[in-house]
Amino acid sequence: MAFYSKDVDSAFHGAGAKPGLEIWCIEDLRLVPVPKYSHGKFYSGSAYVVLSTSVLKNGPPQHDIHYWMGNDANEVDSALASDRALELDAALGSCTVQYREVQGQETEKFLSYFKPCVIPVEGVYSSQPGNSNGETNQVTLLTCKGDHVVHVKEVPFSRSSLNHNDVFILETASKIFLFSGCNSSIQERAKALEVVQYIKENRHAGNCEVAIIEDGKLVGDSDVGEFWSLFGGYAPIPRDSALAGQQQVDSPVILFWINLQGKLSQIGSDSLDKDMLEKNKCYMLDCGAEVFVWMGRNTSITERKTSISAAEDFLRKHDMSSRTHLTFLTEGLETSMFKSYFNSWPQTAQTKLYDEGREKVAAIFKQQGYEVKELPEEDLQSYINCRGTLKVWQVNGHELSLIPVSEQTKLYSGDCYIVQYTYPGIERDESLFYAWLGHRSVLEDRADAIFHMSAIVDSTRGDPVMAQVTENREPVQFFLIFQTLIVYKGGISAGYKKFIAESGIDDDTYDEKKTALFRVQGTSPENMQAIQVDHVSSSLNSSYCYILQNGTSVFTWIGNLTLSRDHDLLDRMLELINPTWQPISVREGSEPDSFWSSLGGKTEYPREKEMKKFIEDQHLFKFTSTEGDFKVKEIYSFTQDDLTTEDVLVLDCHKEIYVWVGRHSTIKSKQVALNLGLTFWKKNFLWRLLYMLLLKAMSHHFSHASLNGIPQRQICMAIRLSGSLLP
Predict the structure, then answer these.
(1) Residue 517: predicted pLDDT
(2) What is the C-alpha to C-alpha distance for residues 562 and 242, in angstroms, rounded to an integer?
(3) How many CA atoms are closer than 13 Å to the CA of 91, on its beta-carbon side?
(4) N or C: which end of the chain has fewer CB within 10 A?
């Protein structure tokens, strides 16, 4: 929601109301809008403000502001663009992330808006029609770097600019040459070809030839001869020009407090904690290649302007201005990369401002007597055939016991199980393996479960998926495979029995002769569970139905917020647990004393409907690991084309994490993939429990529909090295 005032530039009125890009340029010390047909065309003598608005799955729109400064832009225009970016942020409710963009050093997020590339034009932008703005048709040599977004940069037109590691484009008035270094990647060559096509269509109106030049191919081809003649003839490219300047030295991460006068005071380095950031202050985080300015929610516009100026002065004084990315963050809108520099960022996401506002508005309407309806529940559909064959083994130390079909939907919290699900795929049967770890199972049984599952997978034909899930963190797909699941307290494995005996813990393993309380949950007969919980009244919740068993007496308790669907599931589950029971049906608020006595007395329990939480959008990261050092780079505006066979990619769905392992990546075995996933989990880079799906798959198996339709609810870890996608 925008909050415009008289102090906001009139050019910003209505900004951010619709999804997409809006661009303004500084011209004669004022903002002028850039028409859509000129988006992506930036003049090196000008400064711009770019607003990207995207609509999320729920909540308000997301805004990102970039102010772009051409290499030839004057200081006044650049400073004015910075001020206008902060002004636009305030007009949009201080709910944006701001980025400083320097020509030739743009962030990948910025470049992702302008596919396939941004090629700055010499001169100054003019809003007057018919102005050529200094464009010329001289011979130009460009270098293209990047395998997801392309950094296009003009380099001196000289043979010495060429090397074996990059891809180059030589543009002349009548012909475009694409020169690919012999060490460049397939993906970089493909992206550069897109740039060539873009130049041909936009600079030459489609009227020019294109020639592909192979590195190392000697004269003998007319195109090759013509290419080298432009450089004065062929000469070998030195082999040692390859990696110069590419080695990056890790810089210490330093946190500064910025006072009201713009003075920086170091308050920490490397080992940082979120609690160091106070709401009424601004801070600068220097990470070497990137610098962040964090602005507390209780800071004023004046304080924020001072902090931004202080950060820009810091870059200039340390000769970091052109090569360092500068990002401005308001408290509560921190990016993944910013959080990664802190040791202890809260595991549970804080309530979004949108959620807080929605709850307050709902409460006000309820007080006024209006009916407030919740959003419809998300459809929990399966992305694979759930009519396959199910096998379940219980882990008992080094032994596995196959559970009879009639009992395989009954699990114990103190035990571990291996689940094999085989279902018909597109061309063949597919197999999915889960290691289900009860939340009270012992470490030895958990390790044995992983070992046994790996052994079974290695002996299984095809390309099975391995998944590790923990009780209470199961993905919806797990429940849909079982359809009906009962989880009892306690355990029957030797490891669990030994543990409770040595620890002096009472054995609470389910027994029909003992008191037991089951919470019934689910959405349909194909997705329903009964979970045994502590038999105390605080375990109740008005949003659920329960089964209370106390010797020969059985109660069914119906919460006031439950639906007729929940009542149907209650009846079905009661029949499954014990068809001989004759229950006493009790509605919340009309319980007999004997009911409360069975639960040890009446106490408080949750009585309000659980609000649907804010659903985050997915993020895709490129993941690299070198000698135990993890590096993650976000890929913005991603599509299926970003699933490159040479990379390891992390798709963050917040409640689930998928790790996609390209067929030609350095990950070559299931065990290596599993170790990588576990190490990544322990590093906790994304600050939440992980659902990890490692896929060694060809790109046509990972469709756009799969990317957009991945369920975002539960947590587990899965490994896959080839074959089709497990949704």
Answers:
(1) 97
(2) 66
(3) 23
(4) N
Give the predicted TM-score (pTM) of the model. 0.71
Q: Shortest CA distance to 340 belongs to which of 274, 436, 243?
A: 274
At which residue do the structure tokens 């808006």 appear?
113
Distance CA 663, CA 660 (A): 9
Give the right CATH number for 137-233 from 3.40.50.10490, 3.40.50.300, 3.40.20.10, 1.10.101.10.
Answer: 3.40.20.10
Q: Cα separation of 179 and 164, whole Å? A: 10
Q: What is the structure's pLDDT at 200?
A: 92
- Collapse the DSSP code of 377 into the 3-class scheme (helix H, G, I; strand E, B; otherwise coil) and give the result: coil
User: What does the alpha-carbon distance between residue 47 and residue 73 come to, in Å, rounded to a whole number?
Assistant: 6
Q: What is the dihedral of CA 203, 204, 205, 207, to 10 degrees?
A: -160
* DSSP states along 236-256: PPPGGGSSTTT--PPPPPEEE
Res. 669 pLDDT band, cuts 50 70 90? low
Give me the mean pLDDT over the 487-512 stretch. 94
What's the pLDDT tens digit per position in 305-328? Answer: 999 999 999 998 888 866 789 999
Residue 146 is predicted with a pLDDT of 86
pLDDT, mean of residues 666-687: 57
d(CA 170, CA 180): 11
Superfamily (CATH) of domain 512-611: Severin (3.40.20.10)
What token pair was written down for 194? 């897109």
134 CB-near residues (< 8 Å, 6+ apart)? 43, 45, 121, 122, 123, 124
Q: Give yes or no for residue 525 having a pLDDT over 50.
A: yes
CATH number of 254-298+313-344: 3.40.20.10
Report how far residue 221's alpha carbon sits from residue 531's, in angstroms, rounded to the nearest whole number: 73
d(CA 717, CA 659): 9
The pLDDT of residue 427: 82
- Cβ neighbours of 267 (radius 10 Å): 14
User: What pLDDT is attached to residue 542?
Assistant: 95
* Sequential DSSP letters for 77-117: HHHHHHHHHHHHHHHTTS-EEEEEEETTS--HHHHHTSSS-
Contacts for 214 with CB less than 8 Å, ≥ 6 apart: 180, 224
At residue 353, the pLDDT reads: 45
Segment 167-220, tens digit of pLDDT: 999 999 999 999 999 889 888 999 999 999 999 998 888 899 999 998 877 656
DSSP 642: G
Q: Tokens 């299931």 appear where?
A: 670
Residue 128 has pLDDT above 70, yes or no: yes
Of the candidates 352, 333, 292, 335, the one whose C-alpha atom is nearest the C-alpha of residue 96 is 333
How many CA atoms does the CB half-sphere of 613 hold within 13 Å?
11
Name the one residue in this structure whose structure tokens are 């991603």.
638
Percent of the chain with pLDDT strictly greater than 90: 48
Residues 6+ apart with CB under 8 A from 12: 4, 24, 31, 84, 87, 88, 91
Residue 440 has what pLDDT? 95
Q: For residue 423, which amino acid is it?
A: Y
Task: Report CA torsion sign: 717, 721, 726, 727.
Answer: positive
Sign (positive/negative) of CA torsion 210, 214, 220, 225? Answer: positive
DSSP E strands: which ranges in 243-353?
254-258, 264-269, 282-286, 290-295, 325-330
Q: Which helix (H) or strand (E) holds 458?
A: helix 443-458
Q: Which residue has the higher pLDDT, 382 or 88?
A: 88
Indicate the domain borders of the chain. Answer: 11-125, 137-233, 254-298+313-344, 385-503, 512-611, 619-699
Structure tokens at 643: 């699933």
584-587 and 545-550: which strand pairing? unpaired
- How would DSSP label each residue in 654-701? SS-EEEEEETTSS--SHHHHHHHHHHHHHHTTTSS---EEEEEE-GGG
Which CATH superfamily includes the segment(s) 385-503? Severin (3.40.20.10)
Q: How far apart are CA 495 and CA 58, in angstroms?
A: 46
